[in-house]
Amino acid sequence: MFQQTHIIGHLGADPEMRYTPSGVAVTSFSVATKKSWTAADGQRQEKTVWFRCSSWQKQAEIVTQYLKKGSKVHVIGELDEPRVFTDRDGNARSSLEMRAITVTFLDSKGDNPGTAQPPAQAAAPVASGNGQADEDEDIPF
Question: What are phi and psi of 107, to 5 degrees?
């Protein structure tokens, strides 16, 4: 692995799980990270950066089972090259894509009353020597 990124934020929507043609589970979820500061003029400033994350195999199943919109998570993973696209207003945008290695659930027990408590951490399965799961060519999205 040549780089590793840590993010802490909240899910922007419920995770979505799919299966590759070969039957491997993959879950995609978006995480919003927020930075707040006070500018020189005394005004409160805030910036949100979104990451589109994917988790694979058993981790994908755990993420789908226990996380929902608003869940707080710590994701450790590898950033892919940004995906460039045009939004509906014609503006050039980019999306930060992250392959999750570890997803740690940060919500306290009281934050999700009535739901089963997840394991504290969902680690990714062992990948092939290049840091990629062998099923990358089957990504369904």
Answer: -65, 140
Which tokens is 77 given?
A: 């993973």
| pLDDT one-digit tens code per residue, 56-94 | 999 999 999 999 999 999 999 999 888 888 888 998 888
Q: pTM here?
A: 0.73
Overall number of domains in the chain: 1
Task: Report the alpha-carbon distance of residue 130 to residue 2 in Å, rounded.
Answer: 10
- Give the C-alpha distances (Å, rounded to integers) separating 117 from 66, 108, 110, 113, 125: 7, 9, 10, 9, 21
| Segments forming the whole domain that contains residue 116 | 5-37+44-129
Report yes or no on 137 lying in a domain: no
CATH number at 84 reads 2.40.50.140
Domain presence at residue 140: no
